[in-house]
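Support request from a user on the community tier.

User writes: "When I paste my C-alpha cells into the form, the page sometimes reloads and wipes my input. The last time it worked, I copied everything first. Here is what I submitted, just in case something in the input itself triggers the reload:"
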C-alpha cells in the first residue's frame, strides 16, 4: 500500500513496478539522475551482448559489412522514425559532444560574424564555440535566460534581443540541462531563419522526453545523446542535419568518408569500430515503443513530475520551483530551490545515507535540485525523496548555509 494517496490506480502502479523489474537498477537505490546518464533496460543490454558475442565468434564476417552493417541501417531508420526525420539526414555518433563538433568545426565561418547562445548552454558546447570563435575571429553574444520564465514567448524575446545583422548561428537547448526548462524550438528556429541565421539545437535531454518532429521544426542542426532519456547503451548519439548541409561540411575525422555521398552517414563515427551498442540503441527504441512512448511513458512521467512539483511546494519549507508548472515548458525534470540550504551537501548525504541519486545545479546565482524522474521511478520514490530531504534538513546542521 502506498504511504500517501497517489494519482494513479493500483493496477498502473503494479504495471510500472513490473517495468522497473526489467532494469538492472538495484532495489535499494532511488535513481533520480537519468538526466545525466540513463540506465539501459535488460532487453537492450542482452541484445547488445548477444551481438557482441556473435561478433567475437566470427569478427570478419559479422563485422561492419556483415550482420552489424544492416543493424546500423535499421537503427538509423528506427531513430529517424522516432524523431520524424529522413534516415539519410541522421549521422550516428558517440554523443552530443561529438555531434556538436561536426557542424561547428566542419563549416567555414566568415571572420567577424556572431554566434548567439544562452548563458545556460552546456559547458562543453560553450567551450566548443568559444574555441571556434577564438580560432576563426568570431564573436559570441550571450542571452541571459530568466529562471524561470513565465511563458515560452519570454525565451523568444530574450533571444530576439541578442540578434544583430551579423548573427550567423543561434544556439539553444530543447531542454535546459540546468533546470529542465523546455523551449519553443519551432519558434526559436523561425526567429533564427528570419534573420538568415542557422538554428542549432542541443537536444541532449529532449529525445525520449519531449515529442519531436524534426520535419516540422525545420532547424538546421539537432544534436542529442541517446544514452540519456532514450536509455540506449552508453556512447550513442546522433546529429540531424538539414539536407543542404549533406556534403558541405568537412568530416571532423577524415578516412573513407572524404568524398560526398549525399548521406549523413558520411559523418558517422569513422573507421573500424564496435557498432553493437548502436544495435542496442535500436533495441532501446523498440523497448520504449513497445510500452508506448506517447500513450504510456510520457503521460506517466509528466504525472510523476507534476506530483513531485506539488509535493515539494507543499511539504518542503522554503522551497520554490525554478521550472514553470506549465507542461509546455517542462518535461520529466523537476527543479526547485530551498531557501538557506546547501543543496550540494544535501545531495551528498542523500547518496551516502539514503542511496538516493540526485544532483544540484545553479543558474543566475540560484542553486536548485535537478530531479530526473523516468518510467523506472515510482510515486513511492518521489515520496521517499521528499521525506529524506526533509529529514536531512531537520537533522543535519551542516546543510544550513549559516552553519
Ligand atoms: C544539454 C547538454 N548538452 C550536451 C551534453 C553533452 O552530452 P555528452 O556528454 O553525452 O556528449 C550534455 C550532457 O549532460 C547536456 O546536458
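"...and here is what came back when it finally went through:"
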Amino acid at each position: 500500500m502506498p504511504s500517501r494517496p497517489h494519482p494513479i490506480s493500483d493496477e498502473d502502479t503494479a504495471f510500472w513496478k513490473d517495468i522497473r523489474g526489467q532494469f538492472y537498477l538495484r532495489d535499494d537505490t532511488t535513481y533520480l539522475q537519468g538526466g545525466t546518464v540513463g540506465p539501459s533496460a535488460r532487453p537492450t543490454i542482452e541484445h547488445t551482448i548477444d551481438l557482441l558475442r556473435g561478433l567475437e565468434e566470427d569478427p570478419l564476417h559479422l563485422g561492419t559489412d556483415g550482420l552489424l552493417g544492416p543493424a546500423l541501417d535499421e537503427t538509423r531508420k528506427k531513430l529517424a522514425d522516432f524523431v520524424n526525420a529522413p534516415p539519410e539526414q541522421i549521422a550516428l555518433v558517440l554523443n552530443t559532444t561529438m555531434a556538436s563538433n561536426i557542424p561547428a568545426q566542419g563549416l567555414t565561418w566568415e571572420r567577424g560574424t556572431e554566434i548567439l547562445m544562452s548563458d545556460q548552454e552546456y559547458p562543453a558546447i560553450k567551450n566548443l564555440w568559444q574555441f571556434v570563435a577564438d580560432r576563426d575571429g568570431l564573436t559570441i553574444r550571450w542571452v541571459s535566460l530568466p529562471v524561470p520564465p513565465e511563458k515560452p514567448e519570454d525565451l523568444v524575446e530574450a533571444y530576439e534581443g541578442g540578434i544583430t545583422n551579423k548573427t550567423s548561428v543561434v544556439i539553444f537547448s530543447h531542454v535546459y540541462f540546468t533546470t529542465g526548462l523546455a523551449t519553443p524550438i519551432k519558434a526559436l528556429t523561425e526567429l533564427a531563419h528570419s534573420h538568415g541565421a542557422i538554428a542549432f539545437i542541443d537536444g541532449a535531454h529532449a529525445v525520449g522526453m519531449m515529442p519531436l518532429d524534426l520535419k516540422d521544426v525545420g532547424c538546421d542542426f539537432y544534436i542529442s545523446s541517446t544514452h540519456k532519456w532514450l536509455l540506449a547503451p552508453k556512447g550513442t548519439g546522433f546529429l540531424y542535419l538539414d539536407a543542404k548541409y549533406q556534403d558541405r561540411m568537412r568530416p571532423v575525422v577524415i578516412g573513407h568518408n572524404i568524398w560526398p555521398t549525399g548521406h549523413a552517414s558520411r559523418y558517422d563515427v569513422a573507421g573500424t569500430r564496435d557498432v553493437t551498442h548502436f544495435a542496442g540503441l535500436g533495441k532501446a527504441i523498440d523497448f520504449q515503443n513497445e510500452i508506448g512512448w506517447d500513450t504510456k511513458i510520457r503521460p506517466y512521467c509528466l504525472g510523476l513530475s507534476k506530483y513531485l512539483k506539488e509535493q515539494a511546494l507543499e511539504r518542503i519549507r522554503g522551497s520554490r520551483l525554478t521550472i514553470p508548472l506549465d507542461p509546455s515548458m517542462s518535461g520529466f525534470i523537476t527543479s526547485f530551490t530551498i531557501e538557506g540550504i546547501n543543496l550540494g551537501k544535501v545531495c551528498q548525504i542523500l547518496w551516502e545515507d539514503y542511496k538516493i541519486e540526485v544532483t544540484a545545479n545553479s543558474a543566475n546565482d540560484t542553486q536548485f535540485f535537478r530531479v530526473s524522474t523516468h518510467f523506472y521511478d515510482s510515486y513511492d520514490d518521489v515520496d521517499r525523496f521528499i521525506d529524506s530531504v526533509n529529514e536531512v534538513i531537520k537533522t543535519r546542521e551542516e546543510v544550513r548555509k549559516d552553519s
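Agent notes: The reload is a front-end session timeout and is unrelated to the input. The chain has two domains: 10-31+292-392, 45-287. Residues 95-97, 122, 124-125, 173, 177, 202, 204-205, 225 surround pyridoxal-5'-phosphate (CB under 6 Å). Escalated to web team.
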